[in-house]
Amino acid sequence: MRVQEIIRRPLITEKSTQLKDEKGIVAFEVDPRANKIEIKRAVEAQFKVKVAEVRVLRVHGKVRRQGRFVGRQPDWKKAYVRLKDGEKPIEFFEGV
Question: What is the pTM of this model?
Answer without folding.
Answer: 0.88
